[in-house]
Amino acid sequence: MDFKYFIAIVLGIVSFSLKNMGYVLQKKGVNEITANGAATVFKHFTNPSWLVGQVLPFAGAFILIVAYSYGPISVIMPFSGLSFIVLLLFCRYYLMEKISRGEIAAILAGIGGLTMLNVSTLNITDRLTGFRYFFLNTFNGFSLPVMGAPVLLALGFALICLKRKSRFRGPAFGVLAGMVGGVSLIVQKPFSMGLKELFPFNDLGINFVLLLVCGVVFITCVILAIYFLNLGYHFDRGVIVTPLYAVLQIVVPVLGGIVFFGEWNLLEGCMIVLCILGLSVSLVSVGLFTYFGEKKREN
Are the C-beta atoms of residues 203 and 271 closer than 8 Å to each other? Predict the structure, then answer.
């Protein structure tokens, strides 16, 4: 494995660890806010835990931009599943949330699935063929519906759960946040390539306009993901909502790297099978999180 890939993997793990720590702090802030009455915007922005929780994911996003300059998206994302360990420890010892054996099994399944994804994509060579290549493969008549349809379905389900005051409101918004966050990471790839190629922005032509489009979409997706995640925290425990968000935030960009950026064509037969198996196990872990969380609530 190329040494630059090693740098990309380390930066990816650090990035997602910071993000998960931030999400746990956001949940802690939400708990503190709701414990003192109805939540308001003022209470959010005067709560230290919630504010630090907002800063850490943005710091992680910046580190991820650097990581993308060293390796392909399908290599970085699966390794980032190791940050689940940080999530588990923070939820248990910082939020003091009780974690059942079933929930631990779900987290281990998630790590296992993402590890299989990692092994299957280790030999992918980087297809960095320029900013325009990534932009055109991210924003076109094929990729936009493929990304948009699942997000709209998740949004519809979350809104139905919210309207009916369903007990699945927390997981539904966690899933929605993960899908929107995953889309932001797909868009972040051409955005980071554009920053690398166009800096210090001496040419303000069409490429600069396309870069601005990437930046606006990326920032919008990040803000929406944080908003939906915090809605999920209002309705359920962090140990349920955050893993749902984290798994999907990793699986979606891995699929994006394979489908939109042509990395699937670089996989060999057995690696394709392992990749599909890894994706399947990761998605099963999402269902296990929801199942065991609901079982604990019933007890």
Answer: no
